[in-house]
Amino acid sequence: MQMYANENAISYNATGLPWLRTTIPPMERHTPQRAAVLAAIASAGRPLLPQEVLELAASQAPTLGIATVYRALKKLADEGSICPVALAGEPVRYEAAGQGHHHHFQCRECRRVYDVAGCVGGLGGLVPPGFTLEEHEVILYGRCAECTVPHEGLPVR
User: Which domains does the chain carry?
Assistant: First the structure.
């Protein structure tokens, strides 16, 4: 993880991703636990549940607990480094901020959520006359590659 410092703030670039550069405000205390949480989200490449964040961040912060993960997620979301991904009937997941407009795919088998690049567009034509479309969210459902591929003699789930 690269660190940049100036007199006002410290910036972190987790995993070298150019779109993920987070600045922690000067009065905000930086902790190794928060850095591990941010690095876990950046390296996953998909929205994560808090438990998944804990499992991935444990290699960098072995004493990290779930309560600390929740606190770190709240602070990182408040400062705009990560974004919540809310799907109906599902716990909130978190992904790195700055990815631009995109949609999500949820596997019906393992329940993981993945980013989908691009947008279907042209949805304004579906809006009833006199209505104004302000935003949209498209969620695709199916089976991820891991759940689709048969595993050594086991039937496809």
Answer: 2-95 (1.10.10.10), 101-148 (3.30.1490.190)
